[in-house]
Design a protein that fits this description.
Elements (H helix, E strand, L loop, with lengths): L1 E2 L8 E5 L15 E4 H13 L4 E4 L2 H11 L12 E5 L3 E11 L4 H20 L2 E13 L14
Helix pairs in contact: 1-3
Length: about 150
């Protein structure tokens, strides 16, 4: 599996092998390769588009990401919480997800899975053989809302 910390150029796959020569159509001259990190980012963005997904990543990666996201001028890591395995024509994706409290987790996981498959297949042309969604946490209410210690008012 390739994690979001992969540097561009590491772990890439050839999507289409082309031919060389002037007799070939222009579209077939050369080959196309997609770095694993590209699939990581596409899957991460697609997962975050789903209502009910609060954040991505496990405990440590979320903590590091939260600190890093507060640095002025830094961009959020689109690949946090995403691991991929990419072959010549297929990809498998593992996601670590934090959901909002109260949302039906099975529905959110299904929607995430569907959106990731559609996005990765449409953008890369790879066949996605599986998307595993691990719900690691539930985001509770922010500290802005008062919580009563009493069970009744």
């Amino acid at each position: 599996m390739v994690e979001s910390g992969v540097k561009p150029g590491q772990g890439s796959t050839t999507v289409s092998g082309g031919s060389a020569g002037a007799s070939e159509p222009a579209a077939n001259r050369g080959k196309t390769s997609i770095a694993d990190v590209v699939v990581v980012k596409i899957a991460g963005m697609a997962a975050r588009e789903i209502p009910g997904v609060y954040d991505m990543g496990g405990g440590l990666s979320r903590t590091i990401g939260a600190v890093r996201d507060r640095v002025p001028g830094s961009r959020p890591n689109a690949g946090r919480g995403v691991k991929v395995e990419v072959g010549e024509r297929q990809a498998a994706v593992d996601l670590d997800v934090i959901v909002e409290y109260g949302v039906p987790i099975a529905d959110v996981a299904r929607d995430v899975r569907e959106n990731v498959i559609v996005a990765v297949e449409r953008i890369t042309g790879l066949e996605v053989v599986e998307v595993n969604v691990a719900v690691n946490d539930v985001h509770l209410l922010d500290g802005d809302e008062p919580v009563s210690d009493s069970r009744v008012e």
